[in-house]
Amino acid sequence: GAVVSQHPSRVICKSGTSVKIECRSLDFQATTMFWYRQFPKQSLMLMATSNEGSKATYEQGVEKDKFLINHASLTLSTLTVTSAHPEDSSFYICSARFTSYEQYFGPGTRLTVT
Amino acid sequence: DAKTTQPPSMDCAEGRAANLPCNHSTISGNEYVYWYRQIHSQGPQYIIHGLKNNETNEMASLIITEDRKSSTLILPHATLRDTAVYYCIVRVATGTYKYIFGTGTRLKVLA
Question: Using an 8 Å Cβ cutoff, are A101 and B32 in contact?
């Protein structure tokens, strides 16, 4: 299947700082990418839909000024957690739409805010 | 998107078939059923999808009832490596193609 990577795989940052997470589709172009958040022992929660060259569409309850999403190219989307706090500690997962039928997920990024 | 309902957990003996049910009683005619699984601390892995007909690939079989209100994922010969959380997702065929994950079924394959 198609490959999606995320960087970094783990990050620890101090409260009040910003963290950027990259999501790349390695062997295909993705006009649409998605960002999810997953807390321990819970399901994935969709945060936003990222379309190349346009503004992201955020799900209800997700603060767009706190979770900045940029999809500048067909192979790269970035999620920046601004002014991170301990409650933002979570597992962040991206996915990229390969075709109308297939969506591939990255391996996830574990964010810990101290 | 239609909501899905799955049992929270199931056990299966190694080498036996694992049958994972999913209810999606509010599914619309243009919505597909997708199955993904997530092994601990990894991203979800695609398994199979279908619209109306039963589907089979190298990983699993998907049985969709005639009224499309429920489906069953079948892992024909479960192995220990199949231990994971299995998610049944119903997704519209057009538009954003976004997935709304339910709570999933935690499958434990026992030796």
Answer: yes
Nearest to B69 by CA among B35, B104, B102, B23: B23
Taking contacts as CB-CB distances below 8 angstroms, the residues of chain A near B100 are 46
Spatial distance between the Cα atoms of A77 and A44, rounded to a whole number of angstroms: 18
Quick check: A91 and B87 CB within 8 A? no
Task: Say if residues A48 and A69 touch (Cβ distance below 8 Å).
Answer: yes
Query: B96 falls in which pLDDT band (50, 70, 90)?
Result: confident
**C-alpha distance from residue A74 to each of A3, A43, A52 (Å):** 14, 27, 6
Q: Give B-chain residues touching A102 at CB under 8 angstroms.
A: 46
Closest CA to A94 of A48, A41, A62: A48
CA distance A35 to A44: 10
Inter-residue contact A113 to A21 (CB < 8 Å):
no
> Which chain A positions have a beta carbon within 8 Å of B49's beta carbon?
101
Between A and B, how many CB-CB pairs are < 8 A? 52
**pLDDT digits 0-9 by tens, B52-74:** 989 999 999 999 999 999 999 99
